[in-house]
Amino acid sequence: QQQVKQSPQSLIVQKGGISIINCAYENTAFDYFPWYQQFPGKGPALLIAIRPDVSEKKEGRFTISFNKSAKQFSLHIMDSQPGDSATYFCAAYNYGQNFVFGPGTRLSVLP
Amino acid sequence: DTEVTQTPKHLVMGMTNKKSLKCEQHMGHRAMYWYKQKAKKPPELMFVYSYEKLSINESVPSRFSPECPNSSLLNLHLHALQPEDSALYLCASSQDLYGGYTFGSGTRLTVV
């Protein structure tokens, strides 16, 4: 119930392409869904987040799509750049509990 | 100031040593966290402090001892660690227990 599944485990995209990472959860009590970006040797950085009353949120090249009925959400990176190469973690959270992180996706954007 | 600062960045310690990791934030956040991260894995929660009180201890061995001296500082005291404790130790903070985290860059700990 507390798990968040994430796919793919790794992803290779050409520069300018679209990167798509998917996550799924079981616990319907989750009400906050952030994405974190982590570069080697650094801590995770909050990239974008969404609450379940919204189906889509866009910030620059990053978009979260949220499907409440399917209990799925995804991160889309448009016009992917080599500088986007990092590990991406989705997470889910409900008040009074703690973040549950997905296992991570290693994204490589080829120049 | 929108950062969480962790010191030291790297630490090598023997199994009989005692050392401390430090974390500082000046964003007025009232919740602070210690996470442990192994290579190619997501962060694992160790401790949560809310309003300077320990609210969650995720069954962490007693060789790890957290301390929150004030609302801006968080320490993690280490003693008698094992080689398998080698990892990246991350500190994070949030406005309260409901909201996005700000992570520090971590302390890379190696136990020899």
Please characterize this protein's 3D structure.
The complex is a heterodimer of chains A (111) and B (112). Helices cover 0% and strands 53% of the residues of chain A. Chain A has 111 residues and is mostly beta strands. In chain A, the strands form two sheets. In chain A, strands 2, 4, 5, 9, 10 and 11 form a six-stranded mixed β-sheet that branches. In chain A, strands 1-3-8-7-6 form a five-stranded antiparallel β-sheet, with no helix packed on it. Chain A is globular and about 40 Å long. The termini of chain A are far apart. The mean pLDDT of chain A is 94. Chain B has strands at residues 4-7, 10-13, 18-25, 31-37, 44-50, 53-57, 64-70, 73-79, 87-94, 102-103, 107-111. Chain B contains no helices and eleven strands. Helix content of chain B is 0%, strand content 57%. The model of chain B has no long low-confidence stretch (mean pLDDT 93). With 112 residues, chain B is mainly beta. In chain B, 34% of the residues are buried. Chain B starts with a strand and ends with a strand. In chain B, the strands form two sheets. In chain B, strands 2, 4, 5, 6, 9, 10 and 11 form a seven-stranded mixed β-sheet that branches. In chain B, strands 1-3-8-7 form a four-stranded antiparallel β-sheet, with no helix packed on it. At the A-B interface, β5 of A face β10 of B.
